[in-house]
Write a structure and sequence with these properties.
By secondary structure, the protein is an all-alpha fold. The protein is built from eight helices and no strands. It starts with 16 loop residues before the first helix and ends with a helix.
């Protein structure tokens, strides 16, 4: 059976491997700074051969020095071509994004429909608000037809919009319901070439 060493230090930068990390650790044992710098530059060449970054990039050389310093846990003391980074210059972890925690009232419509209705309530013009409500109603109807075989009743759609909006809508929902103006027209069916020729022949005979 193979015995695995579980006491090894974790890799700082995995792309360079453990051997590079061991070589960097040995730099601290070299007392002469000139020799230590010479060995550090040799390690940099090895790191360059292992790296998959674009070596023509202007910042590539500095990145290798920064990586070398990072692997040494920011204790590297050599003559460098660039200012050596310090631990306090590490990028801070970004703050988590603030998501709206309010539960969705109608989960099958999603948050976007609620946001659209909320934006509609901010419109002061009743005519413009009516136009937006009709668009939202059509969206709900189309989305529902994708997932459900049953067609949603127009009154039910408007009742849902009213329930989400509360009393903030000034548009006349009853007028929209009576006139049925948000009814989505049926898509036009494409007539085949054979059907068009048959129709043209029938028309010619009738003449």
């Amino acid at each position: 059976m193979h015995e695995y060493n579980t006491k090894r230090k974790p890799l700082v930068l995995r792309e360079y491997g453990r051997n590079v990390q061991k070589l960097v650790a040995q730099l601290d044992t070299i007392e002469d700074k000139a020799i230590r710098t010479q060995q550090a530059r040799a390690i940099l060449k090895l790191m360059s051969s292992l790296s998959t970054c674009d070596k023509q990039a202007t910042e590539y050389s500095q990145k290798r020095w920064d990586d070398l310093c990072t692997i040494s846990d920011y204790t590297l003391d050599v003559e460098s071509n660039y200012p050596m980074p310090t631990r306090n210059l590490l990028p801070k972890k970004p703050s988590p994004l603030a998501y709206k925690r309010q539960p969705i009232k109608y989960r099958h419509y999603g948050r976007h429909v609620e946001l659209l209705i909320e934006k509609a309530t901010e419109i002061t013009s009743p005519t413009e608000q009516e136009r937006i409500v009709i668009g939202i109603a059509r969206l709900i109807k189309n989305c529902s037809s994708v997932w459900n075989k049953e067609k949603l009743d127009n009154s039910m759609i408007l009742a849902t919009i009213q329930d989400i909006a509360g009393s903030k809508l000034t548009a006349d929902l009853e007028k929209i319901k009576v006139e049925n103006i948000f009814q989505t027209p049926l898509p036009k069916t494409r007539t085949s070439k054979t059907g068009r020729l048959a129709f043209a022949a029938k028309t010619k005979q009738a003449q």
